[in-house]
Design a protein that fits this description.
With 173 residues, the protein is mainly α. The chain has 10 helices and no strands.
Amino acid sequence: DVRTSTRILSGLATAFALDTALLTLAWHEVNRYSLNCYHYCAVINVYAQLHMWMQALELFHATGDSNVELDSGVLNATISTCEKSGEWEKALRLFSLMLWGKLEPNAITLGAEVSACEKAGRWENASRLFSMAAQSKLESSSIAFNATISACEKGGEWDNALRLVRVMTESKA
């Protein structure tokens, strides 16, 4: 049953039991059980916790070979893995895949992207992403606001940081 196997993989992900999660995923593939994006997302989340961005990208690309219909959750999990591993350029490439594909970025996507840029000291990219999201009416999370403000602060862009603080304050009013 798909729900049971998803719960098992999620539980393994929570316990950081990567080898068992991968064996479970492989077993499902070999036995031709129906896999969905949630199965892959659970394993990619384990990779995120372990900062294993290359393996997450490999698994993400394998979803295309297995005819699993992607959703923004799988892409967000892969972007978060890159963000946590300091691979901001990889995160931006995944974001552009999302924009060119059929998937809609959301607040989680934006937060992970901006955080990746912030951690890399790329205030220009963080600020550009944040502005692009605002123009497209994408809902911003406090994570995205704070990461953009932090990126500007690290880059010595105090005027931009203060402007964002004002915007954040006004948007909560």
